[in-house]
Write a structure and sequence with these properties.
The chain is α+β, with helices and mostly antiparallel strands and 714 residues long. Helices cover 39% and strands 23% of the residues. Helix 2 packs parallel to helix 6.
């Protein structure tokens, strides 16, 4: 627990005690130096143990018991007994055994921190301070028989030097964390703060009692970190990206700063015990200090080595609203609600510069990466750039009408801002507006830029969080600080799956019907093409047969003509020969014994018979030729209409194929579109199925995660 400056000791010390305190002081600087030097040496076994009962209680009796006793516990602190002392006061423990420098009581009595004790008087003598220091560093034992137990810091987070460059190894990203929100409300509230990791695509978003981590490339929710302290008013990643700091609390009640390890998601430690919400905080790049501010008007800077208060700054006259360490850890810049802005030495808290110029609340502070320029934004509408040698305002411009709400330097020295005009803007260092992003529906309250993805993330008063590409200003998506519970996500995913399944079935049936129509057209085309082929084959046969019949007809006609001519040739002399034969035969009968005449009659008769036989044979041939002519004429008469019918059928088939082919492309296009729609629906269905499985797995993981967390906390 951290004690505030006003509640450790009462400022109403009695007058008598103060007088005793002044008189009792003995100056022993050399002794103190010797004791401090000796404190660093190994313990001397012969040297008596410094104890509360024997050495420290007498000092407190003389100086402290009047106000811090059993009956009058100023600030709840009783110093009259060891138990009361070690228990501490209203704000927590006073003594950190083994660490005098980290003990708040020691810082007060050495005047390293206010309020100085005792008040209105010099500090304790050096020899008494040295004795108290030695007692605390020795473990703060109660008596000689006490067993010393020195509290050691859990982890020393301090680096050997300031860390602002890119760290070695993979980018700092969280492990698998639960996605179960700590709180989900029906309505979103204002986005209180945003932050991006300097070396990884990681954004942190403040929600109610939680901090949400998003991948700035995919915009996927990576995990939720519990922040039971309340609502985070400030989020900061360490300069090397390994730590995430959140500061916030409950207004008018409590405030604290929490630090997580980005790579493990483990909550490392917390500092501060404010009586109001922490409004601003930062961790130095060397990770030695955490500074915070609140409505108390006080800057409190804590050591990360032990979580104890290192120093306080009481300069501001109004609520603390913004502060940031320089990237080299040398300086700390702070601003308040009254427009006051200062620069301090980070190691000591000594005032370095006063930045005069703003006349409205300081709403943002951001350092350029080389630590040579710091930017401040204000409700007076302006953004101002300051050089750190003399605190000169080297550039100033009105960024947003009504007031500028936030400013942040990018790694390449561009600046992003947002404000009451609802617009988010990107600037160069000369104050030239590079891009004005589309306005929100309400006042823009927070902005950050992810250097790894070159994306700007901003949120407004209604809780809307938008992500833009910083190169062209195009919106790439949205984030939420109020995610649904896993059970709700599963219910939505299940409902979406059912709808998607029905849609997929409808589209699949349509695709199948359209493909069936295409298949039918292709089948009809193939059948008609086969019909055409078969008809063409038949036509070819008919034409061949026609040609054969026509040739046979021609040949038969020629042969018939030839036979007719031959018969005619035989018929022409035949009557004369018959007449000659008749005469010869008659003369031979008249002139009996005339052998020549009888022989002539015989020869003529033989000639007649021969010609008659030749004529009969040729007439027979003629009959064959005439039959062939008739047959081929009949064939030709048959083939000719068949050829025409077949030709007509072929032409009809060709026309049908052409018509079918005309319908094929639109049918194919329709089937392709239907199939693409069905495929898309199938992909959507698979995604919906995976989404259901995902949230089922996340619910199971959250259950095991919470069980592991509960087990680890026991």
């Amino acid at each position: 627990m951290v004690m505030t400056m006003k509640n450790v000791f009462s400022v109403n010390w009695c007058q008598q005690f103060c007088k005793l305190f002044v008189v009792a002081g003995l100056i022993a600087s050399l002794m103190s130096t010797a004791l401090i030097a000796e404190d660093k040496k190994p313990a001397d076994p012969k040297k008596p143990k410094i104890t509360f009962d024997e050495h420290i209680k007498p000092i407190f009796r003389a100086k402290c018991f009047a106000c811090h006793n059993t009956d009058k516990k100023a600030s709840g602190l009783d110093l009259t007994n060891y138990t009361g002392l070690m228990q501490g006061g209203a704000a927590g423990e006073s003594i950190a055994a083994g660490d005098a420098g980290g003990s708040y009581l020691y810082m007060l009595v050495t005047h390293e921190s206010e309020p100085f004790m005792p008040p209105k008087a010099d500090k304790l003598p050096d020899n008494e301070l040295a004795l108290i220091q030695e007692w605390i560093n020795g473990g703060a034992p109660e008596n000689a028989g006490s067993k010393v137990v020195i509290k050691k810091p859990k982890v020393d987070f301090a680096l050997k030097g300031a860390s602002s460059g890119k760290p070695a190894g993979p980018p700092p990203m969280p492990p698998r964390l639960t996605l179960e929100p700590i709180v989900h409300t029906s309505l979103s509230t204002a986005v209180t703060t945003l932050a991006t990791n300097p070396w990884s695509p990681l954004a942190a978003v403040a929600g109610q009692k939680q901090v949400l981590l998003y991948n700035t490339q995919t915009l996927e929710l990576l995990g939720i970190l519990p922040f039971p302290e309340g609502v985070a008013k400030v989020l900061k990643f360490s300069r090397n990206g390994s730590l995430l700091l959140a500061g916030g609390g409950h207004a008018g009640a409590s405030g604290r700063v929490v630090v997580w390890d980005v790579r493990t998601g483990k909550r490392l430690f917390e500092v501060g015990d404010e009586l109001d919400s922490v409004l601003c905080a930062d961790i130095s790049s060397d990770q030695k200090f955490i500074a915070l501010g609140s409505p108390s008007k006080v800057i409190r800077v804590y050591s990360t080595s032990n979580g104890e208060l290192a120093y306080e700054i009481r300069k501001h006259t109004d609520w603390m609203t913004s502060l940031a360490f320089s990237p080299d850890s040398v300086l700390l810049c702070s601003g308040d609600r009254n427009g006051g802005a200062f620069v301090w030495e980070a190691a000591t808290g000594s005032e370095y510069l006063t930045l005069k110029g703003h006349n409205g609340m300081i709403t943002g502070i951001s350092w350029r990466s080389d630590s040579n320029i710091v930017a401040t934004s204000s409700e007076d509408q302006s953004v101002k750039l300051w050089e750190l040698e003399n605190g000169t305002n080297i550039k100033s411009w009105n960024a947003h009408g009504g007031g500028t709400a936030c400013v942040e330097f990018a790694r390449d020295s561009r600046l992003v801002t947002c404000g009451r005009d609802r617009v988010t803007k990107i600037w160069d260092q000369a104050g030239k507006q590079l891009i004005a992003l589309p306005a929100f529906a309400d006042i823009a309250v927070s902005v950050t830029i992810c250097d790894e993805t070159n994306r700007v993330i901003a949120g407004d008063w209604t809780g809307k969080i938008k992500v833009w590409n910083a190169a062209d200003g195009k919106e790439v998506g949205e984030l939420t600080a109020n995610p649904l519970e896993l059970a709700q996500r599963l219910a939505l995913a299940t409902g979406s799956l059912q709808t998607t399944q029905a849609s997929h079935q409808t589209l699949l049936a349509a695709a199948q019907a359209d493909q069936a129509a295409v298949n039918k057209i292709n089948t009809d085309i193939a059948a008609t093409q086969k019909q055409q082929t078969d008809l063409q084959t038949s036509l070819n046969g008919l034409n061949a047969n026609l040609a054969t019949a026509q040739k046979a007809l021609t040949d038969a006609q020629a042969s018939a003509t030839n036979s007719t001519n031959q018969i005619a040739a035989l018929d022409v002399p035949l009557p004369a020969i018959k007449e000659a034969h008749a005469k010869a035969d008659a003369l031979s009968k008249q002139i009996a014994g005339d052998t020549d005449l009888a022989e002539a009659a015989v020869k003529l008769k033989a000639a007649i018979d021969k010609r008659e036989a030749a004529k009969a044979a040729e007439q027979k041939n003629l009959a064959v030729h005439q039959a062939a002519i008739k047959d081929n004429q009949q064939k030709i008469a048959t083939y000719t209409p068949q050829i025409k019918q077949t030709t007509d059928a072929i032409n009809a088939a060709i026309a049908k194929i052409a018509e079918l082919q005309k319908t094929l492309k639109p049918a194919t296009d329709k089937a392709t579109a239907s199939q693409n729609a069905a495929n898309a629906a199938a992909a959507t269905l698979a995604a919906a199925q995976n989404e259901v499985k995902r949230w089922q797995a996340e619910i199971e993981f959250a259950k095991k995660f919470n069980e592991a967390q509960a087990s680890a906390s026991k």
